[in-house]
Each structure stands twice: as C-alpha cells, then as structure tokens.
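Problem 12. The chain below contains 266 residues. Write out its predicted structure in token notation.
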Amino acid sequence: MLGMPVIAIASRENPHIKAAVRLRDAAADRRAPGKFFLEGFRLCADAVASGYAPAQLFLTPSAREKYPTAPLEAAAAQVFEITGAVAQKLADTRHPQGVFAICGAKEPSGDFFRPAGRYIALENLQDPGNLGAAARTAEALGFHGLLCGSGCDPRHPKALRASMGALLRLAVLRTEDLPGTLRSSGLPCYAAVPDRGAPSVLACDFAQGGILVVGSEAHGLTPETLAACAYRVTIPMPGRAESLNAAAAATILMWEMVRQTSDVRY
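Solution.
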C-alpha cells in the first residue's frame, strides 16, 4: 500500500538484486517460481494496469522524481530504492530508466479456446523480438490468444519489450505439446509453409476462425505439428525472397484472417 516503508539497496551483491538478475536471464528461473522481470516505466505501468501486482519494485531516486511511480509503489508488495550502480546491474537495456519490477505470472482464466476464435501459434521461435512483435500484432488485430510451443519464453525481457506490453494483456498459453493442444482445440488449424504448391492464404476461408501456426525462423514447423494441422497455407511472394521471418509471416496471415472475419474499416 502507499506509504509503506521503502528499503534502500546500495550493494550490487544484495540477494534481492542477484535473484532479480537470475530471473531476468534464465527461463528456468522464471518458470519454476512463476515470476518474471520487467524493466522500464511504461512496461511496469502496463503490468499494474493489466492486473499484475509487483512482488518487488526497484526504483532509483531520479526515476521516482521523473516518473509518476506512486501507483506502482501502491501496488507493490515491496519497494526498493536503488543506486545508479545497482540499476546498471539490473538493466537489460543500454539506457535504463531506473524502474524495474518482479511480477507473478498469470494463467489464462477460463477456457482458452472459444468457438470461431482467432489464434496465432508460434513453434520453436528463437528470437524473442519476433515473438514480441507477433504478440503486438495479435493484440492490435483483436486476436483472442497466442500459443507458444517451446522455443523462447514469452516472459523473456526482450519479448516483453518488443510486444509493447501486449504479452501482459493478451491471453498466452505456453505448451510443451503443441500438436496435442492443436488437436484438442476444436478449431481449424492452418500450418504456414514456404511452399508455392500450398494453397494461398488469400484463398483460405477463415469464416470459422481458427489457429494460424507459424514455425521457427530457421526450420519451420516440426513434422508432428504439421500433421496436427488440417490445412497448409502459404503467403504468395512474387519477389526473390524465399521466405519471411516469423513475425512478418505471422503479421500477414493474421491480417488476412481478421480481414475476413471482422468489420474492418478502410
């Protein structure tokens, strides 16, 4: 609550700082306790606005003067005032703002899949920037959720930043069995493939919604995931490029699905 004691931390070797750095750097550390690390005022404010109550909030004195941190401090269980040197240790960016938080992950509430819903599934993406960019597009186009089948962590700091907070607001389901999850969804599944012989996305009928499934930047979809999809779809590319990166491919596919199934105003 607002007015709670603010604890000063001046040592880069403080146990709270070391634990935060581990959470920032290691997916295993994020997964086991169900917590994740945030950096930057806007991202931390987005988290609070989305219903995440920070377990810990770290602020430099200059950040408390520059940014309206009172709502963040009111929501946090613990507030620490840190020095610039400590902020540099916590930072994952070149020019840190001096605002960091640790939040607890939330599982999707209720049934994740809805009839005629629109979903994007990403398998084995290695670039957290691509994951974040795809999530940002999914939220902007009104998709109902995002599935992550292995690959990079949707709570990776770079993915969270690239998503501009979308990964905090969009329903996200992490699964180690993407083929099984696709089969049990009850929705038509469309595997994106770089195959000129596959049906064009422009020829697909997305009236029943469905799940668009995009694979890794280097290897595409696994054979098991391809087998779990009833349809294959490709993006026509009259130019010289043989393929698109995962975020670009996901964006084009999602736009075509939403163009067909929503009242899009031009």
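Discussion. The chain has a mean pLDDT of 91. Students who got a different answer should revisit the alignment rule from Section 12.3.
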